[in-house]
Specification:
Layout lengths: L2 H13 L4 H14 L3 E3 L12 E6 L3 E6 L5 H4 L2 E6 L4 E12 L2 E9 L12 E11 L4 E7 L33 E4 L7 H12 L5 E13 L4 E3 L5 E4 L2 H16 L6 E6 L16 H9 L3 H9 L2 E5 L2 E2 L22 E3 L10 H14 L4 E3 L11 H9 L2 E6 L1 E3 L6 E4 L2 H14 L5
Parallel strand pairs: 1-2, 4-13, 4-14, 14-18, 15-19, 16-17
Antiparallel strand pairs: 2-3, 3-13, 5-6, 5-10, 6-9, 7-8, 7-10, 11-12, 12-20, 16-18, 19-20
Helix pairs in contact: 5-10, 8-10
């Protein structure tokens, strides 16, 4: 697939995925359209050779897998891991604020967000709403306002002359978005959600909205930019870029090997949840895929996980924030991430294997080590490796502005990552 076509597909995926719930829905629909069968964890599974399946948990995490040809499972699984969540602003349970004649919603910062870029953006609202219908049953539905309905205005420089010398953002007082003028009777978020639910799901008969998980997001669509269209800018590249690359690689694989894609929620806040990488989701699925304990251990020891999560490209204005010998470039291929303190799970053998894969796929490859005097982020790689005992390599597409409301990648790097992961899913032998 030409990189322009692939990037448009990535842009469409990101646009349809403003929250982890929507990302999981988008992934599911593409897999179902490709012939994957949806499984329910509450049911008995009858898995077949050469089968293609997907299973969801919490509607925000997903595992898709192919069982491969006869004997493929016993030879080991080729697993790719990514995450569906991104730093954002989440609406509080009782969020209504009437201030100076304006109606605002209180928000909580989710994950390690760069907060300054959230100001002066056209924001919309999306997420999951749980309600009681007119028959007394509980139901949940996804909603997405899509249009700009809110903004967080900056304070004028005339009222804060030192702002360019450093702005300390108070998450409690500075971030509540403005949605409208205050009106009588007092505006109510739950009443607004009933209206939105009925617009998006006309056949619903709603008695009362009981709760919700809603996030604000930037409505600006993804774009390819630069004089030579070298760059790709979008919200939530960390880590929807990797989810999309894993999906495309899985759908394009030759179906002979046992392959698995796991996209989990809550990575940005430590992965410790029922549907996060530090929960039992993947282990539960593998136990049903390989029910006999000793056979499962043997298969896992023959398996390998590629943990795909974006990497830090060297910024031309802040090059001193990188180790001089480890500054990944945009459009120079996926980055192998290494940390001696196991913040990344890469070791010499798994790194060598991924380098070999990239060579086989005709893809350039880079490496990243954080400066020795700086702290290091982490991924689902070490978590999954420690829970399963599976060999792991941490990789990712190089990007700028990680955890901003809008991030920047090289326009060729999504294609490079897809090619490397497809080569992995089709590989005859693992290390």
């Amino acid at each position: 697939m030409p990189h322009s076509t692939l990037n448009q597909d990535l842009a469409d995926f990101i646009q349809a995925s403003p929250t982890p719930f929507h990302a999981t829905q988008s992934l599911s629909q593409r897999l179902l359209d490709a012939g994957f069968e949806l499984l329910d964890e509450r049911d008995d599974w009858q898995l077949k050779v050469n089968g293609s399946y997907l299973v969801r948990r919490n509607d925000s995490s997903l595992i898709a897998f192919r069982t491969g040809e006869p004997g493929a499972l016993e030879r080991g699984l080729r697993m790719v891991g990514a995450h569906t969540d991104s730093p954002c602003l989440k609406v509080k349970p009782q969020p209504e604020i009437d201030m100076q004649g304006l109606w605002q919603l209180g928000v909580e910062v989710y994950g390690g967000a760069l907060l300054a870029p959230w100001f002066d953006r056209d924001l919309s609202l999306a997420g999951r709403v749980t309600f009681r219908d007119c028959s007394g049953q509980l139901q949940s539905r996804l909603i997405d306002f899509k249009r700009p309905i809110a903004v967080i205005p900056s304070l004028a420089i005339h009222l804060n002359r030192g702002v360019n010398d450093g702005l300390a953002i108070n998450a409690q007082t500075h971030l509540p978005p403005v949605l409208a003028h205050s009106l009588e009777p007092r505006r109510d978020l739950r009443a607004l959600l009933v209206t939105q639910l009925q617009q998006e799901h006309p056949n619903l008969e709603i008695d009362q909205v009981l709760d919700y998980e809603l996030s604000f997001y930037d409505t600006q669509p993804a774009s390819t930019l630069g004089l030579d269209e070298d760059f790709f800018a979008a919200a939530r590249l960390d880590n929807l870029l990797s989810c999309h690359a894993g999906l495309r690689a899985l759908l394009d694989s030759d179906k002979r090997q046992a392959c698995l894609l796991v996209c989990t929620d809550h990575e940005e806040i430590g992965s410790c949840s029922a549907c996060g990488a530090d929960g039992p989701f993947l282990e539960d699925v593998l136990a049903r895929l390989l029910p006999e304990a000793e056979s499962r251990i043997r298969a896992i020891q023959r398996s390998l996980l590629v943990s795909a999560d974006n990497a830090h490209a060297v910024h031309p204005n802040f090059a001193d924030r990188h180790d001089a010998n480890h500054g990944p470039q945009l459009n120079a291929g996926p980055v192998i991430k290494v940390n001696s303190n196991q913040r990344y799970a890469t070791n010499s053998e798994t790194a060598a294997f991924f380098r070999h894969l990239c060579h086989q796929a005709g893809v350039p490859v880079q490496s990243f080590v954080v400066r020795s005097d700086m702290g290091c982020g982490s991924t689902i790689g070490p978590i999954t490796a420690s829970r399963l005992g599976v060999r792991t390599v941490d990789v990712g597409a190089p990007t700028f502005a990680m955890h901003s409301i809008r991030e920047l990648a090289g326009s060729r790097d999504p294609g490079y990552l897809v090619r490397a992961l497809r080569e992995f899913f089709n590989s005859e032998a693992l290390i």
